Give the backbone structure.
Amino acid sequence: MGKSFLKPAGKAIFKDSYVTKMNELLVEEDGERRQYGVIGAPLSKPSISHSGAAFAPGAIRQALGSYSTYSNELGHDFKDIEVSDYGDVEMHPTDLIHSQDRIYQSTKSVLDREEVNQLIVLGGDHSVSFPSIKAHHEAYGMVGVIQFDAHHDLRNLEDGGPTNGTPFRRSIENNVLKGEQIIQIGIRDFTNAKGYDDYAKEQGVTVYTMADVRQHQIDTLIKKSLDHLAQQVDLIYLSVDMDVLDQAYAPGCPAIGPGGMDSLTLMKAVEEAAKHPKVKAMDIVEIDPTIDFRNMTSRIAAHILFSYWKGKYLAD
């Protein structure tokens, strides 16, 4: 009888014995304590515009399989990292606020177990940030946020409720964050209303526009942001809205536009921020895989994860 080359469905792929892929680092949570954990928050129904961002957690996990664990730049192999994957939060089919509350409850449950030192949330649209930050606030104390975004996301809640444009307004109004604990980087021209720029100023939010990003080294802006927050908070949370990127780099974002950040700058920013000991959490939001091109945007999201791990490695 001849040798069978049958593999389980979906597993019949080329395997190089010298290569470990990044998706192999994800292990189903089993109660073991690990440095990193991942949770999917597949919610996009609260989006102001049409969005399939609910499919992004799976797309990002899949994109991890396109890359090896070895960093040529560092001469270091990350193959020994194990990342607890807690799976995806089950969304309610019709109740958006309840779905957001499920994200809060699930994130809080993971944090309460104290099994991981740092949790990364894969959205979903930007509305998932409020329940995640709320959970971290209750688990760690005062939280500061570095928000990479083209938009302020400080919209009023009267006109549309808790949409993907309101997470930081909700955080301020619910005493989860103070304005001076929010730093926004990459805010883009002709993308925000004057009323929300005024609100940011009134609340003490630090805003770095794309003009600031162009005029200053990103390392400098990150250092200033970390120095500002570290004096006030117990934990620093990175919120990465992928539409901070120029549309040329992120075709899978629902709110694409010109004049944004390039992918290398964003990756460098996350790497630099992750070096700080108080940076212990991150979310990645606003990718719609149904409109992406060759998974370009999800692949950058995967590299955002790698940049975070690189920063932590360099800080050790």
User: Anything to note?
Assistant: The mean pLDDT is 95. The CA atoms of residues 110 and 160 lie 30 Å apart. DSSP finds nine helices and eleven strands in the chain. Residues 22-315 form a domain with the Arginase; Chain A fold (CATH 3.40.800.10).
